[in-house]
Write a structure and sequence with these properties.
By secondary structure, this protein is α+β, with helices and mostly antiparallel strands. The chain is about 25% helix and about 40% strand.
């Protein structure tokens, strides 16, 4: 019985070894059969990518300076009485339109008129004294020094009379030109000193201007007389022709910008001081080349490139963008030898890819 079990065990082991050898032989046969099977040929040719081309432009391009500013009358003056006194009458208020020579306010003339009469009387008396001294000096009745004293007294009295007459004439304040009263600083009954501001007038004689602050990059090369256009936000988008009239010689200490004044050729009649607007100042900039914005494609290392077509193949040009103007990009590189760049379909191209140009 024990011998029979041993025989059965050996038979089982031999059978298992046979199965393993059979599987291994089958696997090697399959691998050999697969290796001997011929490999299908692969077509590695890439079909051409259809693109559209756009012309490349070189040379100076228009790149206006864009700024914002406020419109104001060029002539803004503070008006004041040249003599002191009590204000007796005020005839205008803020917003009043005035004409040249129009009386704006008066001082009480009582004291001023009395001073003028007294000074005129003193001048007349000194004139008579001078004439009498001349006759006496000619007859030898008085010394020459008496005549000299009479002449000095007449000179002083005449000067005082002129000053009193000046004060009487300037006891009224008149508008020096046509304009609008922006500020009123006096009231009837108020006592004012000579030169104390009474009104602020925006005159029309010198037109209207826009003032804007520009950076040092924009100020370089900018000159007086450069053409510009202005659009006032409150009065629509109609451009108003203008020219650069003043440029600050130094930067503002606070902001580091330069104030530029733009004079409007014809200011609208309904503008108000302080209205805001947009300013475009004409400028030409030398660039390497100019291409449509949609010709720019992502480049290596986060840069950008453009794609040119050379003998049916895409040729990638790394570029640097200087600025955008509308739907065009100004590039630093002149791209010598390139006359057109790919636009539509450019983003799908790699360097050397086949290209089919669509008319």
């Amino acid at each position: 019985m024990r011998r029979r079990n041993v025989v059965l065990g050996l038979s089982s082991i031999v059978g298992a070894i046979g199965v393993v050898l059979s599987v291994s032989a089958a696997t090697k046969g399959a691998a050999a059969s697969k290796a001997q099977k011929p490999r299908a040929s692969l077509d590695v040719r890439k079909p051409p990518t259809q693109v559209r081309l756009a012309a490349l432009v070189r040379g100076p391009v228009s790149h206006p300076i864009h700024a914002a500013g406020q419109i104001r009358a060029k002539s803004q003056v503070d008006l004041a009485f040249l003599v002191g006194g009590e204000v007796s009458w005020v005839g205008v208020d803020v917003g009043s339109k005035v004409r040249r020579g129009q009386i704006l306010a008066r001082l009480d003339e009582t004291q001023v008129a009395a001073d003028a009469d007294r000074a005129q009387a003193a001048a007349s008396q000194s004139q008579r004294d001078l004439e009498r001294a001349r006759r006496l000096e000619e007859s030898g009745a008085v010394a020459a020094t008496t005549l000299e004293g009479a002449q000095t007294g007449h000179t002083i009295a005449s000067a005082q009379a002129r000053a009193a007459s000046f004060a009487l004439r300037h006891s009224v304040l008149v508008a020096p030109e046509d304009g609008i009263i922006d500020l009123r600083l006096v009231e009837p009954g108020q006592t004012v000193a000579p030169g104390q501001p009474a009104f602020r007038l925006s005159g029309k004689s010198r037109g209207a201007v826009m003032r804007a602050n520009l950076s040092d990059r924009d100020i370089v090369g900018l000159g007086i007389g450069r053409s510009a256009s202005v659009r006032l936000d409150a009065l629509g988008d109609e451009p108003l022709s203008a020219k650069v009239s003043q440029i600050a010689p130094a930067a503002s200490p606070g902001s580091g910008t330069f104030e530029v004044e733009i004079r409007l050729d014809h200011a609208p009649t309904d503008y108000k001081n302080g209205m805001t607007g947009k300013i475009d100042i004409e400028r030409k900039v030398d660039v390497g080349s100019l291409v449509p914005v949609d010709a720019l494609v992502p480049g290596e290392q986060e840069g950008v490139s453009v794609i040119a077509v050379d003998d049916g193949r895409a040729r990638r040009w790394p570029v640097h963008v200087l600025f955008f103007e509308g739907e065009r990009a100004a590039l630093k590189e002149p791209l010598v030898g390139v006359s057109e760049v790919a636009t539509q379909g450019a983003g799908m191209l790699g360097d050397g890819d086949p290209v089919a140009v669509v008319p």
